[in-house]
Amino acid sequence: MKIIAIGMNYSLHCQELHADEALPQEPVIFMKPDSALLKDSKPFFIPDFCEQVDYETELVVRISRLGKNIAERFASRYYDAVTVGIDFTARDLQRKFRAEGKPWELCKGFDNSAAIGDWVPVERFSDIQQIGFHLDIDGNTVQRGNTADMLFGVNRIIAYVSRFCTLKIGDLLFTGTPVGVGPVRIGNHLEGYLENDKVLDFYIR
């Protein structure tokens, strides 16, 4: 199982963190190892190698078929469920690595940096590009998005990624975060929602 993640997929988030950069013309891809997966409402422990860990709330798609060079018009056949996930980012390390022109996998792919909630069958939604989601921390909504605002839709991402690497059953696709990212602190209670249904619920330790 591999975790494929998309960066800079919402224009307002691009302005939030990279206001001096042009919007991407193709999906921005990075990977997380399977050891990054955090599920079953287990707590997230803030690592000791950074000073700021940010939440990035995302729609996560579960791949259900083996596929390579998938045409965009057939991409919807290759996933069966969605949930809310958190792409935890060691923000201070990311700033350092970017400034030095170095790869920044370490700030994205550390252990437990890919939290996911309970899966919801994709058939529950009439259009994957019309799904609202949000994150509450300690009972307050801190980030809200809708897949309609993606720069690159789910099917286009799948077609693009499958040109370079084979998608396998169980692979996860983190589809990018909207505007509103911010830091987490010990004791925070995180709850993620698809529309009005809570699918993600865990604590920061």
Q: Could you characterize what this model shows?
A:
The chain is an alpha+beta fold and 205 residues long. The chain is built from three helices and 15 strands. Strands 1, 2, 3, 5, 6, 8, 9 and 12 form an eight-stranded mixed sheet that branches. The chain has a four-stranded antiparallel sheet with strand order 11-10-14-15, with no helix packed on it. The chain starts with a strand and ends with a strand.
Write the layout of secondary structure elements.
Elements: E1 3-7, H1 11-18, E2 28-32, E3 37-38, E4 53-55, E5 57-63, E6 79-87, E7 89-90, H2 91-99, E8 114-116, E9 120-121, E10 132-137, E11 140-146, H3 154-164, E12 172-174, E13 182-183, E14 189-194, E15 197-203
Radius of gyration: 16 Å
Number of helices: 3
Oligomer: single chain
Q: Structural class of the helix and strand makeup?
A: alpha+beta
Report the β-strand fraction as a percent range. Answer: 25-35%
The N- and C-terminal alpha carbons lie at a distance of 26 Å
Major sheet description: 8 strands, mixed
**H/E element sequence:** EHEEEEEEHEEEEHEEEE
Shape: globular
User: What low-confidence regions span 5 or more consecutive residues with pLDDT below 50?
Assistant: none
- Count of individual beta strands: 15
Fraction in helix = 10-25%
Mean pLDDT reading: 95
